[in-house]
Specification:
Largest sheet: 7 strands, mixed
Bound molecules: pyridoxal-5'-phosphate
Shape: globular
Number of domains: 2
Structural class: alpha/beta
Radius of gyration: 21 Å
CATH class of the largest domain: Alpha Beta
Strand order of the largest sheet: 2-8-7-6-5-3-4
CATH architecture of the largest domain: 3-Layer(aba) Sandwich
Oligomer: single chain
CATH superfamily of the largest domain: Type I PLP-dependent aspartate aminotransferase-like (Major domain)
Distance between the termini: 53 Å
Strand content: 5-15%
């Protein structure tokens, strides 16, 4: 009779770097200190009214739906994709419980346990958790702050290839970097992946939040149908993170068959939320125009204010609502903690996410932070001003 244990996965499952500092923020607040949250991507933008209204039409029985999602919703999604130049039909679309489940199902279906997936770092940290769940190994490839975290040259990818490499995950527009990859760079990646029989799993949940040019979908490339898997979600598009709807879009029929088997095991995605997501597709363009304008304004304010910090390295993000900033400190983790526990300006302080947690390579990103510009500009200015004052004070220590 041994001892009761928990899974060995505990050793490889990372704690969220975004939430890690939360207890310190709670403590600061309990002392009556106001905390500006630049650490977390919860937008304050209103969900479209048309989506909210749909939640008032709940049927008398909330039934199970099809495992692949409601037919009417998938059909309607085709019209949305057509509008954003992504040519697909409903048989290519599999509805999931958020983009999160879409990534998990894709990894479970495209890779076998022990296979490898290459991911440019810094990356959305939950990819680590999804990889643990699927039993696959993340192989990071480092992108550089100096060139705005653009995709590395293909020779860098080539250097990471092993017989177990099966896929590359990209996030475009990027969380946490704000990078948007050019069509040319993506074409190089597509050629490389085709040649080496790799999937490219492209997380495009920030498509609508592109401030320079337009984000190119992985589904736009010709002769790449079987390799391309696109991940999508309603969370950010409609500022509806709690409405748990996402999808996998791919033309790879074999892959979709296995995805369906995993889908059947969890029965179906949420029915009521799908009805709301279907209604949300009729959100007027004016909504997106206004939201994009607001984020662009915030980005510009964040960029300008951060550039005023002596010694800061500030790439101008092209999309999403995050940026990774280099600071003149040795240990941004310690600085972020110190801001919460020790620094006050007019009884206020700022919370940021240390960027080290977004890297898989040990020791990288130690002097970087991630900022989510999800506050209104007035607060954003104050928050970054506090960051600047704090930095001066911190460096005196
Ligand atoms: C928010 C987010 C997701 C998924 O979110 P869901 O709420 O599960 O749809 C996926 N990828 C990135 C990069 C994100 O920021």
């Amino acid at each position: 009779m041994g001892k009761l244990t928990i899974s060995s996965r505990n050793a490889i499952m990372q704690e969220s770097p975004i939430r890690k500092l939360a207890p310190l923020a709670v403590k600061a607040k309990s002392q009556g200190v106001h905390v500006y949250h630049l650490n977390i991507g919860q937008p304050d933008i209103k969900t479209p009214q048309i989506m909210i209204d749909a939640y008032h039409n709940i049927p008398p029985v909330i039934e199970y739906g099809p495992s692949e999602g409601l037919h009417s919703y998938r059909k309607k999604l085709v019209s949305y994709y057509k509008k954003v130049n992504i040519p697909v039909d409903e048989s290519n679309i599999f509805i999931t419980t958020g983009g999160s489940e879409a990534i998990i199902f894709t990894l479970l279906s495209a890779l076998s346990p022990g296979d490898e997936v290459i991911i440019p770092e810094p990356f959305y940290t939950n990819y680590n958790g999804f990889a643990v769940m699927a039993g696959v190994n993340v192989v990071p490839i480092t992108t550089k702050i100096e060139n705005g975290f653009d995709l590395p040259p293909m020779k860098d990818f080539k250097a990471k290839l092993t017989p177990r490499t099966k896929a590359i995950v990209i996030c475009n527009p990027g969380n946490p970097t704000g990078a948007v990859f050019s069509r040319e760079r993506l074409q190089e990646l597509v050629n490389f992946a085709r040649k080496n029989n790799l999937y490219v799993i492209s997380d495009e949940v920030y498509r609508e939040f592109t401030y320079e040019g337009t984000a190119t979908s992985i589904l736009e490339f010709e002769d790449f149908e079987d390799n391309a898997v696109m991940i999508d979600s309603t969370s950010k598009r409609y500022s509806a993170c709690g409405s748990r709807i996402g999808c996998i879009v791919t033309k790879n029929k074999e892959l979709l068959k296995l995805i369906l088997k995993f889908g059947q095991a969890r029965l179906c995605p949420p029915s009521v939320d799908q009805v709301a997501a279907e209604a949300a597709i009729d959100t007027p363009d004016s909504y997106f125009k206004a939201v994009k304008k607001e984020y662009q304004k915030r980005r510009d304010v964040a960029y300008t204010e951060l550039c005023r910090i002596p010694g800061a390295v500030v790439p101008n993000p092209k999309g999403a609502f995050y940026m990774v900033v280099g600071l003149p400190v040795k240990d941004a983790d310690d600085f972020a903690k110190w801001l919460l526990s020790d620094f006050r300006y007019k009884n206020e302080t700022t919370m940021v996410a240390p960027a080290s947690g977004f890297y898989a390579t040990e020791g990288l990103g130690k002097n970087q932070i991630r900022i989510a510009y999800v506050l209104k500009t007035e607060d954003l200015k104050k928050a970054i001003h506090i960051l600047k004052l704090g930095l001066t004070e911190y460096k005196k220590k």
